[in-house]
Amino acid sequence: MTTVDTHAGQSPTASLPVAFPTTSDASGRTFGAEELAAVTRVLESGRLCRTVGAEASALEREFADYLGVAEAVASTSGTAALHLAVAAVNPEPGDEIVVPPITDYGTVAGVLAQCAVPVFADVDPLTGCMTPESFLAVVTPRTRAVIVVHLFGGPARIDEIVALAHERGIVVIEDCAQAYLARPDAVGGPAGTRGDIGCFSLQQSKHISAGDGGLTVTNDPASARRMRLFADKGWPRDTGERTHLFPGLNYRMTELQAAVTRAQLPKLAGVIDARRRTAGSAIRALTGLPGLHLPQHPDRHSFWMLPLVLDRQQIHLDCREFAAVLIEHGVPAAGGYLTTPLNQTPAITGRQVFGTSHFPFTVADDWPTRYQAGECPVADSLVADSLVVIAWNENYREEHVDRVVNAVIDAHRRATS
Ligand SMILES: Cc1ncc(COP(=O)(O)O)c(C=O)c1O
């Protein structure tokens, strides 16, 4: 049985004889004796909440050191990690936060919850990531922050976006839920350390996992403090007072999640290396097929998925038809990734965050022109027509790579003959 686990989008399932390792069960996960020992340690201690234990604090220190940043804040999910980042920005109602349209809803959940307005910037036709140009095109005097998603593990042009944003006093949040250890260039630090705040997910399908969980990193101690308080009801436990400094939520990571993540962290580099090695050999084998665009720098990609972009002038199958051929071959693939780009999903187009009030969209005067087809034409065309994603995994072996390569060659042959 092969299952496509896109998590954020469609999940076609096909009964097939070929077993591809999947993140949906142990076949494609790295859970072992270390995680078992971690869980046992926490259970035996009787300390499952971070307010009485030491695992979450230790994880925060270890993750910050791992990435080479000053602070990390643990939370309950990638969505929570992003919400903490927006809460640290502390937008005024109606302030705008720029986001891309090809991503998980978790990218925008915190924007809406903090009464800010998501403004969608179109994406690069080959990577699906927001570009410096598309970001600049939607900046207004109300723009407070931008959330850049490193889609499928492929790094966005983050340094250029950071430079443009900082010139304008705009905070840069990196959504690295799919992009652990992605490298925007050959020399600098990994994705998540280039902007002001970096956000990571530990959900089941991610490179490392505790089932669910999130981590937010920053070099700014004031932001980190605000995030810690927001994740714990605004409660300044470090001062010994039982008071609440501003409205927050309970986004505390449990000690069990933290202990499992601490066991996962030393495995992360190996997970990324393995994915780069196998995806790199698939890409080498497929390079040169006319009309098929593949990631340009496999050594910098972290391959949460392997994206293919079809040049529809040359490929006469759309992305869903192309993916159907891959699925026939037993390859865990999907066309389009999302049903629609996020700017056209009902949770956005309905504009109903707080009852039927349309707040915070009512704060700005140009909102009626947003959230429809044509707003981000490149994203529309990728999702409707040309983007194919293949689930990737650290446990793929040569036979899986061969099967992917043969399937893509067959789909390409059928699409061009
Ligand atoms: C790009 C992106 N952002 C945010 C999220 C949200 O993470 P979580 O599912 O852990 O809340 C995800 C997870 O699918 C994601 O892929």
Strand content: 5-15%
Number of strands: 13
Apparent shape: globular
Q: What integer value in Å does the Rg equal?
A: 21 Å
Largest sheet: 7 strands, mixed
Could you say what the CATH topology of the largest domain is called? Aspartate Aminotransferase, domain 2
Summarize the model shown.
By secondary structure, this protein is an alpha/beta fold. 35% of the residues lie in helices and 13% in strands.
For the structure shown, list the relevant keywords.
417 residues, binds pyridoxal-5'-phosphate, Aspartate Aminotransferase, domain 2, disordered N terminus
Explain this structure.
- With 417 residues, the chain is an alpha/beta fold.
- It has 2 domains: 2-27 and 267-340 and 376-416, Aspartate Aminotransferase, domain 1 (Alpha-Beta Complex), CATH 3.90.1150.10; 33-266, Type I PLP-dependent aspartate aminotransferase-like (Major domain) (Aspartate Aminotransferase, domain 2), CATH 3.40.640.10.
- Helices cover 35% and strands 13% of the residues.
- The protein is built from 13 helices and 13 strands.
- It has helices spanning 33-45, 55-67, 78-89, 106-113, 132-138, 158-167, 221-230, 255-264, 268-286, 319-328, 346-349, 377-386, 398-416, and strands at 2-3, 13-14, 71-75, 96-99, 117-120, 143-149, 171-175, 197-201, 214-218, 292-293, 305-310, 333-335, 387-391.
- A 7-stranded mixed β-sheet has the order 3-9-8-7-6-4-5, sandwiched between helices.
- α3 packs across α7 and α9 packs parallel to α13 (398-416).
- The relative contact order is 0.17.
- Bound molecules: pyridoxal-5'-phosphate.
